[in-house]
UniProtKB/TrEMBL annotation:
Subcellular location per the Swiss-Prot or TrEMBL entry: Cell membrane
An MF annotation (GO) of this entry: phosphorelay sensor kinase activity
Membrane topology: Multi-pass membrane protein
Gene Ontology CC terms, in alphabetical order: plasma membrane
Protein name according to UniProt: histidine kinase
Transmembrane segments: 21-48, 197-217
Keywords (A to Z) from UniProt: ATP-binding, Cell membrane, Kinase, Membrane, Nucleotide-binding, Phosphoprotein, Transferase, Transmembrane, Transmembrane helix, Two-component regulatory system
Native species: Zhenhengia yiwuensis
Domain HAMP: 218-270
Broad EC category: transferase
Length: 494
């Protein structure tokens, strides 16, 4: 872009646009969903993995304690059932072998002097009759406690072990301490296998969800892309394009709003073209008359004694053009908020009576009957008197314009709580329902208006609408076949 500094020199300024890491809504949605998915799976994987590890260690420990209890019960039967020690040891060794095979465990039985009585597994020959160097742990078992720990016997094993200690009672005295050792790597191996299975399941699930997220994001952003393209076409003046609506979600509602906007813009554009055509027609008629009369006066076609008559016609046509121009300018200022209200107290009934006097000529020409039904003689209201006078004038002008010959005009006021309702009615043709909402549009002018009146441009009711909108008052129309057409508005009474 190019600018001038205070010295008049031209300065070139280049706009720098930062490239976004995620330039499209699709990439943002996809990244967001995938980030949530990955973080969620990592979080639950970590929790499940730690929970399973604790569960499996506790599960193995419970099995070891249960087996230790069974082995201890075999020794107890020696005293209670008079069984031989040899048979008892046979059953103990058989159970120890099963335990060693199932858990890859090592089983020790230690006497009260800390000497090894039974040692299974690879250490049976090395550990037999050997005195153990862990008196604190052994003493704890001989006190009658069941222990479970993952430390204390490192010097006897190449890898960490899970150890369970259980007292063996013969008679009423603890004679032996039973220790079962299971290698922690064996336990960890099972845990790692479960983690691998879980990781594969997570990977497969993530892949499936990724595909679903990808197509879901595509499906969500597809109508938005279409809306973007159609919005650009609407911006270029192509109001006939519409968005395909499928569903009732927020995106579909946005598409419906875009279609509604396109329809309204199309209608406004049509009314604008009609307005321009109407203005051109209304302006051309007085200009043609002015040009014709002035030319005729200048070239002598119109004799001097008739100059005054035709100059008055030229003056009237000029005044009509000025009124048209002033109406357009006033409407623009009202819509832009450049015409502030000047509210004060005034008598609305007196205003209505004064304005009705302006229609005495048309009343006689159309042989119209005028009924005035006022709530009371005087009624003070608080509003902008100049603008309200314009409202009443425009509504009366509209009523006299469309009233049928020998018809009826009725003006009524009704007091309701803190409001005064003003009704202006006229007999004659009803306004079709489809046109009732259009008569308030800026560029709308029904063909009926052009056929009956050549003096207006169809913006009188728009000025009425904008004025009542500024006053925050109600304005409406009631028109049914066979009934009088009624325009009404409200004012705040004093």
């Amino acid at each position: 872009m190019e600018y001038k500094n205070s010295m008049g020199s031209r300065i070139q300024v280049r706009e720098i646009k930062r490239k976004s890491l995620f330039p499209t809504l699709f990439s943002k949605l996809l990244t967001l969903y995938l980030s949530i998915l990955v973080v969620t799976f990592i979080f639950f994987f970590a929790i499940f993995s730690n929970a399973f590890q604790k569960y499996y260690v506790d599960y193995t420990e419970n099995i070891m304690i249960k087996q230790a209890k069974l082995i201890a019960s075999e020794y107890q039967e020696v005293g209670s059932m008079k069984q031989s020690l040899q048979k008892t040891l046979e059953r103990v060794f058989l159970r120890v072998e099963v335990l060693d095979s199932y858990l890859d465990a090592t089983t020790w039985i230690v006497d009260r002097d800390y000497n090894m009585v039974v040692a299974s597994g690879k250490q049976d020959s090395m550990m037999m009759d050997r005195k153990l160097a862990n008196p604190e742990v052994i003493q704890e078992v001989f006190k009658g406690n069941v222990i479970s720990q993952q430390t204390g016997f490192e010097q006897y094993f190449a890898t960490p072990v899970l150890t369970v200690g259980y007292p063996i009672i013969l008679g009423n005295q603890i004679e032996y301490a039973l220790f079962i050792h299971t290698p922690m790597p064996q336990i960890q191996k099972i845990i790692d296998e479960v983690r691998d299975i879980l990781m594969k399941a997570v990977f497969i699930t993530t892949s499936i969800i990724f595909v679903l997220i990808y197509f879901m994001s595509k499906q969500m952003t597809k109508p938005l892309k279409q809306m973007n393209q159609i919005a650009k076409k609407i911006a270029n003046g192509d109001f006939e394009k519409r968005v395909s609506i499928d569903g009732e979600d927020e995106i579909s509602q946005l598409g419906s709003s875009l279609n509604y906007m396109a329809g309204e813009l199309d209608k406004i554009e049509a009314n604008r073209k009609s307005f321009i055509a109407n203005v051109s027609h209304d302006m051309r008629s007085p200009l043609t008359s002015i040009q014709g009369f002035v030319t005729a006066i200048l070239d002598g076609t119109i004799p001097p004694e008739k100059h005054e008559k035709y100059l008055r016609i030229v003056l009237n046509e000029s005044q009509r053009m000025i009124k048209m121009t002033n109406d357009i300018l006033e409407l623009n200022k009202m819509e832009e908020g450049n015409l502030p209200l000047k509210k004060m107290e005034f008598d609305i009934h007196e205003m209505i009576r004064d304005l009705l006097d302006n229609f005495e000529q048309v009343t006689k020409e159309k042989e119209v009957k005028v009924n005035v039904i006022l709530d009371k003689k005087d009624q003070m209201v608080f509003a902008d008197p100049e603008k309200i006078a314009r409202v009443v004038q425009n509504l009366l002008d509209n009523a006299f314009k469309f009233v049928n010959k020998q018809g009826t005009i009725e003006v009524e006021t009704v007091a309701k709580q803190h409001k005064i309702w003003v009704y202006i009615r006229n007999s004659g043709p009803a306004i079709p329902e489809e046109e009732q909402k259009n008569i308030w549009e800026r560029f709308y002018k029904a063909d009926l208006s052009r056929g009956k009146d050549k003096k207006g441009m169809g913006i009188g009711l728009v000025i009425v609408k904008e004025t009542m909108k500024q006053h925050n008052e109600e304005l409406g129309i009631i028109s049914k076949e066979g009934e009088m057409v009624t325009f009404y508005f409200t004012l705040s009474k004093i």
